[in-house]
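Narrative of accomplishments. A recurring question from our advisory board has been how the design workflow behaves on a single, concrete structure rather than in aggregate. To address it, we present the structure tokens for one chain from the evaluation set, followed by the sequence designed for it. No filtering or post-editing was applied between the two.
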């Protein structure tokens, strides 16, 4: 009978088979044959010495120790003196100290160092599992979507994501934040999240808010801790913060950052593009990603909403208040950025509410202007401009030559298409005419809100070489064809004027029935009119003929020009003059 041994050890199930066979009355040889080992092994099993080392700690080596000469004498003392030493550092030290003697012991050093640190190393930090109660804690943090460039209307969009989460149910909210971490961004994002959730937790936890303090714009009259405390007090939340630089203390929101950003990245891959028409379109994608995450825990979310505190009636102001006077150039200066405003506000003092993404100007508690908030992103520059041609187009129309030398000329043009049109106008017309045409086009784009249509019309007319100021105005109904009403006239009898040409006979007797002619007595103080000679018949006839010719309607005799005509300009002009087109 052929027996089988497995590395000198008998498997457990073989022993069980042997013992069962012996209990049923089989001999040692028969039972060993059934179990698959020799009769001698069966004898050792029954004697109890078939596994003499069973339960014994392995204190022997099957191969020689390659670090026997240096571990206890050199490497271990180095670890005791500096527990932060890494295995790679010790291996490289061995290579330098003993060249060629320890070429392939890196893995051995790594295992030996790991075992030594487990036995003699310093205690490690413990992560405790926390128990969350419904309605107790909400967490806030800012995060950045790294590795992906979002573009709005073809331009890179620098932004952060404000992320809020309820610790118990995992309900989440996220929104776009422009301009970096700030208390204004935290205030707006948190309040939007609370109103979107429909309730307020008892505690709110966030980081140390150091970045928000640096972005307060130098306003140190009210410490950030006071602002944060006032915000939490308004919503009846207990403010809590984790320690600076210890992110895992805010782990209830740090870990979900990764899940949210991963879902956004996957949705962008499915979309096939990172370019959005507007910020609202990008925010809509984020909202859909958040909705899918919230759909994972509907039961716990509904359970926690029952424990949330009710919302207050009013929000805390989530903006910073400044004042600025509109200059004669129709501009205001806010945080080293020059903004244009409607010219009707020149000379007025505006109250400005600075949000993270916009500026709203108030005059006598009425909102009069809303501007996008611009920040200086280039560290080499200290100032920037936000010029909107719609604010000053009407005033610029009265002074078109100002467009030629205005320091904002490039910013006045809406986009690159308009800048190319301006270059073409300067080549086709003289500068004054080109400025008039461009300013008129900007005025039409402002008053009729047809920026794209006006640009398309200018390009088409320039290609056809038929652009004039009159056609531009007529195309957009600034000029219309004058349609005069049809008038019906009746020509009166001209024979009454013929009587002036016929002189009555001097010897005609006056009828008795007619009254004697009335004569006017000369005025003693009347001034002389010049020549006092008696008017002859010939002179009277000439005067009457001139009068008749001037009064007759449709007289074929044209009146002579009393002044000589000017000489005509030379037809050899280098450029067209838009005023004469």
């Amino acid at each position: 009978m052929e027996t089988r041994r497995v590395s000198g050890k008998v498997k457990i199930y073989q022993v069980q088979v042997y013992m069962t066979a012996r209990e049923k009355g089989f001999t040692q040889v028969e039972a060993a044959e059934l179990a698959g080992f020799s009769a001698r092994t069966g004898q050792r099993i029954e004697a109890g010495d078939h596994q003499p080392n069973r339960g014994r700690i392995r204190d022997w080596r099957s191969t020689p120790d390659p670090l026997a000469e240096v571990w206890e004498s050199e490497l271990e003392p180095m670890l005791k003196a500096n527990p932060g030493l890494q295995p790679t550092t010790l291996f490289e030290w061995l290579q330098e100290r003993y060249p060629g003697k320890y070429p392939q012991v890196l893995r051995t050093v790594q295992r030996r160092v790991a075992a030594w640190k487990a036995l003699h190393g310093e205690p490690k930090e413990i992560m405790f599992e926390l128990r969350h109660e419904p309605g107790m804690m909400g967490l806030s943090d800012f995060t950045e979507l790294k590795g992906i460039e979002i573009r709005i209307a073809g331009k890179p969009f620098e932004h952060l994501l404000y992320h809020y989460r309820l610790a118990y149910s995992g309900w989440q909210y996220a929104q776009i934040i422009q301009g970096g971490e700030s208390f204004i961004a935290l205030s707006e994002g948190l309040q939007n999240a609370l109103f979107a959730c429909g309730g307020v937790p008892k505690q709110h936890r966030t980081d140390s808010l150091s970045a928000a303090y640096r972005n307060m714009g130098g306003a140190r009259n009210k410490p950030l801790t006071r602002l944060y405390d006032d915000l939490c007090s308004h919503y009846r939340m207990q403010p809590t913060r984790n320690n600076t630089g210890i992110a895992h203390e805010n782990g209830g929101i740090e870990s979900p950052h990764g899940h949210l950003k991963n879902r956004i990245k996957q949705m962008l891959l499915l979309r096939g593009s990172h370019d959005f028409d507007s910020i609202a379109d990008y925010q809509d994608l984020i909202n859909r990603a958040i909705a899918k995450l919230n759909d994972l825990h509907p039961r716990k979310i509904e359970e926690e909403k029952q424990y949330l505190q009710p919302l207050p009636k009013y929000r805390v102001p989530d903006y910073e208040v400044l004042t600025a006077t509109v200059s004669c150039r129709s501009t205001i200066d806010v945080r080293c950025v020059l903004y244009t405003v409607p010219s009707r506000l020149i000379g007025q003092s505006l109250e400005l509410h600075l949000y993270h993404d916009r500026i709203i100007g108030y005059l006598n508690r009425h909102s009069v202007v809303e501007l996008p908030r611009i920040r200086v992103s280039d560290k080499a520059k200290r100032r920037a401009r936000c010029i909107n041609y719609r604010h000053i187009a009407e005033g610029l129309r009265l002074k078109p030559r100002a467009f030629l030398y205005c320091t904002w000329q490039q910013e006045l043009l809406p986009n690159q298409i308009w800048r190319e049109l301006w270059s073409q106008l300067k080549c086709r017309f003289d500068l004054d005419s080109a400025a008039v045409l461009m300013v008129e086009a900007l005025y039409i784009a402002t008053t009729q809100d047809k920026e794209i249509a006006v640009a398309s019309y200018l390009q088409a007319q320039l290609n056809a070489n038929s652009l004039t100021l009159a056609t531009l105005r007529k195309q957009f109904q600034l000029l219309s064809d004058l349609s005069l009403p049809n008038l019906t006239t009746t020509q009166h009898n001209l024979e009454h004027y013929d009587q002036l040409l016929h002189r009555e006979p001097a010897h005609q007797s006056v009828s008795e029935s007619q009254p004697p002619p009335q004569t006017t007595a000369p005025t003693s103080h009347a001034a002389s009119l010049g020549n006092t000679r008696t008017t002859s018949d010939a002179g009277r006839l000439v005067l009457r003929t001139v009068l008749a010719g001037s009064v007759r309607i449709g007289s074929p005799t044209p009146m002579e020009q009393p002044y000589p005509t000017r000489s005509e300009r030379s037809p050899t002009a280098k450029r067209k003059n838009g005023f004469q087109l």
